[in-house]
Design brief:
two-stranded antiparallel sheet; globular; mainly alpha; 296 residues
C-alpha cells in the first residue's frame, strides 16, 4: 500500500471518530469521543515511554501506563461527567500512585528500573492531566441538543494552526527553492517564520469562523456570546502559540532521546505523539482561557 493510501486511511479513521464525537446524537457521540481519546492516549503514552525508556525495555511499564490512561478516559463516560470521588483526588490517580510505589519497591538495587519508573510516572501524570482537561471541555459543553462547539473550537483552533503552518511553510519553501527563514533550527529544522505567520492566520480565521457560526443563540447559549470578533481572534492567537510550543517541546524531547519520529502507530502519518503534542499543551492553555473568561 502506498504512503498516500496509508495516510488517507489513517486520516479517514481519525476524522470519522472526530465527526462521530461531534455530530451524532447525544447518546452515541460520547462513545466515539471515548474511542478517539483512548486510541490517542494509549498510543501516545506508549510512544513516549518508548522514547524515554527504550523500545525493548520495561514493556510492563508501557502497558501499565497506557492502560491506566484508557481508564482515565473511561471514568468520565461512566460518570457522565468528570467528578473526583474525593475533593482534589480521582480514582485513577489513587490506583496509579499505589502501583507506582509497589514498582519502586520492586526496583531495589536497579537504578535503570527506578529511572524507568520515574519516567513512566511523569508520562502518566502529563497525559492523564491533559486527558482530564479535554474530557472536561467535552462533557461540560456537550449539551444534549447542541453541537459541542467549545470542543470544536479547541480541536480545530489547535490543528488548523498545525495544518496552516505546514502548508504555508511547504509552499514558501517550494517557491524560494528551500530558502525560507528557519524559526528554531536547533530544535526543529522544518519550522519557518513563513509557517508561523501562515499557521497563525489559519488559527485566527478558524476561531473567528466558529464564533460567527455558533454565537448568537443558533446553537444554544455559548459562553462566548457577546465576545466580539477581536476576543475570538485573541483566543486564536493563544491557541496557535500554545500548540506551537507543544510541537516544539515534543521535537526537543525527540532530539534529546535521539529519535526521528515518536512512532509508527498511524500508517502513513507516523506517531500518535506527533499528532497530539499540540493538543496536550493546548489543553492547559484552553483551560486557562476558560478560567480567565469566566466560562461556566
Amino acid at each position: 500500500m502506498s504512503t498516500l493510501l496509508k495516510r488517507t486511511f489513517s486520516t479517514v479513521i481519525l476524522l470519522s471518530l472526530l465527526a462521530g464525537s461531534v455530530f451524532l446524537s447525544y447518546e452515541y457521540r460520547a462513545w466515539f469521543f471515548t474511542v478517539l481519546c483512548s486510541l490517542l492516549g494509549f498510543g501516545a503514552a506508549w510512544e513516549c515511554c518508548d522514547m524515554l525508556n527504550g523500545p525493548k525495555r520495561f514493556g510492563g511499564l508501557k502497558w501499565f501506563v497506557s492502560l491506566a490512561l484508557v481508564a482515565v478516559v473511561l471514568f468520565p463516560l461512566a460518570q457522565k461527567r468528570y467528578m473526583p470521588f474525593w475533593p482534589g483526588v480521582s480514582f485513577d490517580v489513587v490506583i496509579f500512585a499505589f502501583m507506582f510505589w509497589m514498582v519502586v519497591l520492586a526496583s531495589n538495587k536497579n537504578p535503570d528500573a527506578l529511572r524507568a519508573v520515574l519516567n513512566s510516572a511523569a508520562v502518566f501524570f502529563l497525559f492523564s492531566t491533559a486527558l482530564k482537561l479535554i474530557s472536561g471541555i467535552y462533557y461540560t459543553y456537550n449539551g444534549a441538543g447542541n453541537i459541542p462547539a467549545t470542543f470544536l473550537l479547541f480541536i480545530l483552533g489547535t490543528k488548523s494552526g498545525d495544518i496552516g503552518a505546514y502548508l504555508t511553510g511547504s509552499l514558501c519553501n517550494a517557491i524560494s527553492h528551500g530558502k525560507n527563514h528557519k524559526l528554531v533550527p536547533a530544535i526543529s529544522p522544518a519550522k519557518s517564520w513563513e509557517g508561523l505567520f501562515g499557521g497563525l492566520a489559519f488559527s485566527i480565521g478558524v476561531s473567528v469562523g466558529i464564533y460567527a457560526i455558533f454565537s448568537g443563540g443558533r446553537n444554544g447559549a455559548e459562553w462566548w456570546d457577546g465576545f466580539g470578533y477581536w476576543r475570538m481572534a485573541v483566543i486564536g492567537v493563544l491557541m496557535f502559540f500554545g500548540g506551537m510550543l507543544g510541537d516544539l517541546a515534543e521535537s526537543s524531547l525527540k532530539r534529546t532521546c535521539q529519535v526521528k519520529d515518536s512512532g509508527h502507530f498511524l500508517p502513513g502519518i507516523g506517531g500518535l505523539f506527533d499528532l497530539v503534542d499540540s493538543l496536550i499543551v493546548n489543553s492547559f492553555v484552553f483551560y486557562l482561557i476558560l478560567f480567565f473568561f469566566n466560562a461556566r
